[in-house]
Amino acid sequence: MATQQSRSAARLMMAPAVILLLGWMLVPLIMTLYFSFKKYLPLRGGDLGWVGFDNYVSFVTSSSFWPSIQTTLIIVGGVLVITLVLGVLLAILLDQPMWGQGIVRILVIAPFFVMPTVSALVWKNMFMDPINGILAHLWRFFGAQPVEWLSQASMPSLIIIISWQWLPFATLILLTAIQSLDSEQLEAAEMDGAPVLKRFWFITLPHLSRAITIVILIQTIFLLGIFAEIFVTTGGAFGTRTLSYLIFQRVLESQNIGLGSAGGVYAIILANIVAIFLMRIVGKNLDA
After folding, report:
1. In the 3-class helix/strand/coil scheme, how is 198-261 assigned residue by residue?
2. pLDDT in tens, 50-79
3. In this predicted model, which residue has the larger pLDDT, 25 or 243?
């Protein structure tokens, strides 16, 4: 049993890391809050004084604010659905004995280690280019007119690109969960005559509930701030401007750090609302 002296020593050794982590999080947050109440134009006069809540009002009353919220949530929801459905299927497939199983798993997981910018460029130029892209050649082979993916189907294209990058993460987490499933349960259900779908629905899927919860929570946190893929592909055009990209545009166009900081506060509020919702609805599985 740990003594009071050993617990005090552990806290003392952990203190530098905790202080550094708190500083890493709190200093940018405090600076964002500070600048959100000021009119700060670094290239046009610098600090022009306090403006109160004017930046917040200007940002939220912009005609692009609510559409950007909607776009953000659509992308997050679309990517979650695709990665969870395909992730479960791939995890079950990769759990089956096959030749070259290790190599196949590495190939499936590899896209997760590709940088978002590189991934978006590959999809944009190699697959979705309406003239020289692989999909364009495939369409012409079947006698169809190539689709201009990033303009005619911009949202589905973005969701596909982002899902391709996050699918390996979901697959890896779900595969680990499947491998921890007691095979005797499945064998007993099979001997009792339960069909494949019922074994999946009543045994495998409930066992994956905690892993699915972890995938949803982690992916949502990162997807709410999606930026690189939009910057590289559509540039925020064709209805693909998320909240994070809107903040970038507002700062770039107006050169107003205060306006961008107010947008950052709104992004923090949105992330916390979504996180609370997920923890209440989905996070209950973590306590099971």
Report:
1. HHHHHHHHHHCHHHHHHHHHHHHHHHCCCCHHHHHHCCCCCCCCCHHHHHHHHHHHHCCHHHHH
2. 888 888 888 888 888 899 999 999 999 999
3. 243
- In the chain, where are the structural domains located? 62-287
Helical axes 65-94 vs 243-254, angle rounded to 10°: 140
Considering the entire predicted model, what is its pTM? 0.84
Angle in degrees, 0-180, between the axes of helices 101-109 and 65-94, rounded to the nearest 10: 180
Q: Which residues contact 140 (CB under 8 A, 6 or more apart)?
A: 146
Looking at 3.10.310.30, 3.10.100.10, 1.10.3720.10, 3.40.50.150, the CATH number of the domain 62-287 comes to 1.10.3720.10
Amino acid 52: pLDDT: 81
